[in-house]
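User: Please predict the structure of the protein below. I'd like the answer in structure-token form so I can feed it into my own downstream comparison script.

Assistant: Understood. Taking the following sequence of 277 residues as input:
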Amino acid sequence: MGNKAFRPRTPSLRWTMISDFKELDPRNKKPEKSLTSPLKRSGGRNSYGRMTSRRRGGGHKKMYRLIDFKRDKLGIPGTVLSIEYDPNRTARIALIEYADKERRYILAPVGLTVGMTVQSGSGSEIQPGNALPIREMPLGTQLHNLELQPGKGGQMVRSAGGYATLMAKEGEFAHVRLPSGEVRLVPSGCIATIGQVGNIDHENISLGKAGRNRWLGRRPASRAVAKNPVDHPMGGGEGKSSGGRHPTSRNGQLAKGLKTRWKKKPSSRFIVTGRPR
């Protein structure tokens, strides 16, 4: 597991840094058919055909992999058949075959290899890939795929290289430090998976050229100060002018330093320490 650089034979290759995919099995190029579903591209448009997310469009065709975020196959051991690439996320996924021959995809943590056994549920061992309630984990445990409500499925810490740390346990809640630095109260009955999410070198990837962004379905973005006043508050002016005002978004909202979190948001009572700014 690592990244691969190239000899600068072309201008784009000079800065290209991509994954070497060494952790993947070259013989297993197709995903499990029963665990995939069609993924229709929206181009950033909602059900009314109106663009709600800019700079989306194009990209390579791909299927969605159905990931088991709930880990509700309790008490049944499963064997890792393969570690696979998922075009829909930064992390790698692992194909698990359980003792009853059912197959599921899970997020592949660091240290999980083909042939290893994973298990979920109360009483599972503390090893990468196993999922169990937070109340049964020792303090200092690294975890991912963290539930916020028991039985809802993992919602947080699912991207490549991410991990949360169990800081303390008090009654019905546990103190968990998230990757952002925020310390949050989580019900101790919530299930999380042991270990750090794999593909930790993803943060060092450099696409190298604009075309690779287009392959991923990302369209070009123009700088605000390069636009006309009719298109953006920062546009217009002679030369490289910013209009003599603080940076704003397209709708005029301040872009630097403005706190946008709703002060009366109900979940704020679960935040022990906010993320550092």
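That's the full token string. Residues 109 and 198 are 4 Å apart (CA to CA).
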